[in-house]
Amino acid sequence: MREAVDVAIVGAGPYGLSVAAHLRALGLSLRTFGQPMSLWRGMPNGMFLKSQPFASNLSDPAGAYTLEAFCRATNKPYVSYGRPLALETFIEYGMWFQRQQVPDLEETLVTHIDRVDGRFAMLLSNGETAYARAVVIATGVEHFAHLPEPFATLPRQLCTHTSAHANLGAFAGRDITIIGGGQSALESAALAHEQGATVRVVVRQPKLRWNGAPLPPDRPMLRKLREPEAGLGSGWSTWFYSTQQGLFTYLPAGKRAKIARTALGPAGAHWLRPRVENQFPVLLGHTVAAIDGVEGAVHLRLRDRRGHEVSLRTEHVIAATGYRTDLSRLTFLDSGLRTQLRTIGTTPRLGRDFQSSVPGLYFVGPAAASTFGPAMRFVYGADFAARRLADRISRSIDRHTAPTRKVAV
Q1: What are the φ/ψ torsions at residue 169 (nearest 5 degrees)?
Q2: d(CA 120, CA 132)
Q3: How sure is the predictor about 399, in pLDDT bands with cuts at 50, 70 and 90?
């Protein structure tokens, strides 16, 4: 049987690459699996990140391989605050980080993970079986696209989730309806409209929410105290989510889960607003009462808050209905492993070291949000996750057994 490495990382997005960079620096034996920045490379061309550039860094131990360092090395302009970061630039940065910090990334997929004789056995898509004493799951939201009823019953040629589209220009000349009122819905609608589609947006809420413009850096100290700026935005609650992930774990589990699910909810970036308002119809305060696919089209019956209904026909529906962590959808985890995982709702219950109730099995990124807070849903949380997890693994790793389990919170 092949020798087991200390740690295997499943996933090569911002969290997986950041964790790998920290563990490599500690000298642990390591294998990292996945396609680099794959989820991001599948996002629509022309998008921008909602996060500020200063809050969009992957993490290495020295803090040297930042977005700013990448821009300096590649002669790209860099503004830390107040100017949106192009998706294309961020993907290039992630790929650069991977080449510099995780050059031994194995671009193969893990198709099955099980626990065998005190260590993890991983079946790879190339047919190999790999072994590790500890495994870090860093697959982001890739498996968690949420397509609720009644949209899930329609064929994919008529209804899709926003995550299915890397090129919204494919809808040029067609009539599409986008469901949702957050950044994903509004930016997808703007991009499709700008590329020649006939677009409408259906929003459950009575009005759209827009994030405010960046705060002036030279604002008076009193205003800074009233509304501090942090990695996830401005305001004291946002500052807490941005900077106190460790303290967040001491909140009651139910409260943590609710905050992780609802904080920093659906809203459009301030810079997107002119590309949406008065550009295409936005039906506010409407829900989908019924939906049906007939003769290559979708018939929607919408209901407003007063109970009035309106019908419309469209060629395609895009559901910008977000992502929901659900361990049952991680089918690459052996079913026996999944039944051993303690949960908070459908998310893993983790210890303060990111370890699950299965000794040696760790989760980072959005799957950790119910333990460490909303920062885990954003690139900004990768630094905290990578530093804490690397520190705890390095102190607990045993060359012959899996790390000892810490009590989940």
Answers
A1: -65, -15
A2: 5
A3: very low
